[in-house]
Known about the structure:
The structure is a homodimer. By secondary structure, chain A is mainly α. Chain A folds into 2 domains: 27-121, Orthogonal Bundle (Arc Repressor Mutant, subunit A), CATH 1.10.10; 125-190. The first copy, chain A, is 59% helix and 5% strand. Chain A has a 3-stranded antiparallel beta sheet with strand order 1-3-2. In chain A, helix 2 (41-56) packs across helix 3, helix 4 (79-86) packs across helix 5 (90-103) and helix 6 runs antiparallel to helix 8 (162-190).
Amino acid sequence: xxxxxxxxxxxxxxxxxxxxxxxxxxxxxxxxxxxxxxxxxxxxxxxxxxxxxxxxxxxxxxxxxxxxxxxxxxxxxxxxxxxxxxxxxxxxxxxxxxxxxxxxxxxxxxxxxxxxxxxxxxxxxxxxxxxxxxxxxxxxxxxxxxxxxxxxxxxxxxxxxxxxxxxxxxxxxxxxxxxxxxxxxxxxxxxxx
Amino acid sequence: xxxxxxxxxxxxxxxxxxxxxxxxxxxxxxxxxxxxxxxxxxxxxxxxxxxxxxxxxxxxxxxxxxxxxxxxxxxxxxxxxxxxxxxxxxxxxxxxxxxxxxxxxxxxxxxxxxxxxxxxxxxxxxxxxxxxxxxxxxxxxxxxxxxxxxxxxxxxxxxxxxxxxxxxxxxxxxxxxxxxxxxxxxxxxxxxx
DNA sequence: TAAAATATTCAAAATGTATTGAACATTTCT
DNA sequence: AGAAATGTTCAATACATTTTGAATATTTTA
Lengths: 193, 193
């Protein structure tokens, strides 16, 4: 049975401890230990929505959470911000951000005088789509030609089904052509949104 | 880290307790128990290729195997044929075929005088694409509008970020429009292959 | 350079999904 | 109807991915 992902975002109860944030007194400690601002209703809705969307592509929940948080937050967030607000592990936050970055779904922002890297969500559909196509679809099409010729050369020409098999190979070749045309088209179309 | 599926078709070492059951007297039984014809090179290549392709969509290996076998086989195959040739369990074969059928990727064939249902692969890209879009993509877009209005109503209008949040909602609305236009276009394009 | 801050890695644990196979249900045949 | 053949379901198990968090690596500051 094909995969189906759960979608509810229900980290509800877990609120941290620690005390309110005082302005930059003891270097880092205060920053690290101040409780993260709880998510707003808009952020919660947004996170839930993107868990759903990314889930439709069979991507892990943590990636949907991270993108949803950045999407719904105006200011750039650091890895620690993301980690604390979503209550993710450091590892998940790091990997998730790295993956989103490599796809181009998240932008790195350098803030003057602040060392931590900060991130914002990329919302241009063109960039999102082409990143996804580049990283997750194109790689499967690339070795297409070699696979196709492998398939073709596996045909036993003496067999009575050789003709049938050749037609199948032709079928697949047609599919590749389709993708060769459709993918660029999608990019162009996405550019308008 | 995003999902990555193994792709090698390596049932080779299945040295399990495949007892070479003694040929039975019953005429029917002979059919069932006769060892399935081993896969041809073309079929093996094909199965491997479709495990890969379906894997790119995060679909289970068994589904790729089944489609690959049917794709590379001229004659219609029954559930038992599929099960025996791929060494799948009955359950997997049944569920996999059912799923492929519901998608429209596999056609049911009724053979005169033969009771078992038989199946062939559907190779029309238009049918494959629209089945996939209908079953796996469209459902996620359907509750889009309600999600969108949920998101919109979660905006705290008093907040200083309300304007930003409204623009995000607008962004998502644009994405939905894109899909509304792109999906039909894909179907049309796929019709030519 | 040493210490602090930040970021990444990775083995183990937690979670989630696919597969199996025997029980159950259904249909067809005699 | 009873028997045989065929098809489906589902609880248990096997397998795979994701998450965690402590250890490690890297960069920055003083």
